[in-house]
User: What shape does this take?
Amino acid sequence: MAPFPGAWTTLDGSECKIWRTKIHAATNGGTPGKISLWEKHLLVQTKDGVVEILEVQMAGKRKMEVAD
Assistant: This one.
């Protein structure tokens, strides 16, 4: 049940942990890895659909909602 190792990426050379996501849409097509903003939603295209990132944590910072 522990979130380790979890998902993470880098943003401007700093580690960014991804704490909470949800499936946004199950679609075929699009380029996997493509990141887009729609209103206050951070969306990532995958091979099988779109994942919405809901909560992140930058290195040395507290967790925060993506909309913030």
Q: What stands out?
A: Residues 40 and 67 are 5 Å apart (CA to CA). The longest strand covers residues 14-25.
